[in-house]
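Quick start: what a row looks like.
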Amino acid sequence: MIFRPRILSLAALAALALSCSKSPPTPEKEATATPSAAPVAPSASASATSAEPPKATIPTLFPEPFEGTKGMWVDLFAIEGALIVTEGLRVGRIVEERVEWIGSIPDGNQSLGGNRISSVHGFWPDGVDVLYTTNEGRALMPTLFPLTGKGVERRFGPGGGLGWINGTTRLGKTTLVVGYDGDGGHRIETVRGPTWVQKPLDAEKGGCKEDEVRKAWSGDEAALALPPRAIAGTEAGTLVTLGNLCERDKSPAAEVWDQPGKSRIVELGSMIKELGYFPKILRGKGDDLWIESKPVLHYNGGKFEALPTLDKPLQNLFVSPSGKLHAIAGRSIVRFDEGKWTTIANFPRPMRFSTIAMDEKETIWVSYSGVSRLRETQNAETEDNCATPFVYLYEVSWKNDAKYTYPTTSKALSTFPAVADIGLVEYYDDGRRLGVTVKSKEQGEAVIAHVKANMKDEHPELICYAPRSPRVIEIKAAKSK
């Protein structure tokens, strides 16, 4: 998704939809023994040398604020070849320990509250594109603006009508944007380079029924079989869009252009139940694409396949400059390599970021306190030696008001045998979160088992943490029968 949730307009449906640790060293081969007249007992040091090398430890990382943006109210974006920050209407590039400001978006639409930056896309140096909107939720007029190099501005919903942008991608020397408005319907337009002349399959050729075509908000153009919600092109030249086939509920599908002048529909329902309204596609090397879905899907060579799942949901997917897929699972950073997920780092507690990216030096950058780099910390307490064991439950939905009492969670905890010893608390840690205070590691493990047994799809974790100024939510013990 490329439009930040805090400015979504429900009236406009305005969503304007982007390896850490090194492998352990190879053990040295043992030298060939030289024959001797009599056997010699191995020394302690020789025994240690020939023993198995210790396993590489997994580092614990925590965000360290970037001095180059200290005191600024900035957002972080990763594009091909650069890390970008925005402040107000201006756009800058992170260069070593500072920000190099490279340009600004137009300061217009004052009658609609002025303009604001939503996200940054493209490639450095000659293809930086900025997505901006007005500050009026009922007339956003989403616009993709070419900040550097040669390109054309593309606006959806001009004049304040209904419109949104779902994505942008690079396909060879061409940059494309996909979006919708009431005048032109769903469409893909060229922003940079040679004009892309191919068209998505229309609804009739895609097998859509007449009532589904009417439902599809087609504008002046023919309705599409797969109104696109996301778009991505591979380095090898394949273009993929995602959406629901014929706008049917829970009919996820992809339209794939992997042959000149021709596209095909690939239904994905056998692998995933549904797409989010703003699905995210990540680009790798060669013909690799990944879809941030449940489970994660991989595209390569004309085929989609589901990646293995973990006991914690995968989120915050990102791709390293070398083309390796990474994600956050619970409080771990994991990397997908040779058919499996491997933990390469941990956090002291579960964390989630609106932006996470790896640079050429394999440093991971995150949106945390503005902009931060993940650094190894030696100060994190472990659950085995912790004075403040705590059960982390989940992030709190923005829909819940400040006095929300979490009735489903409270009810599940009310049947915990030692309910009088635990406490349900809401606290703030880079967002609203919910957890349970416990008196010991053993009690925390018992709470986790109880939650998993009584609350489907929850993934509690035992961490060492003491929330500051938590709001206590009353848990009423269930009456015994």
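That is the whole record. The chain has four helices and 32 strands. The two ends are 48 Å apart (CA to CA).
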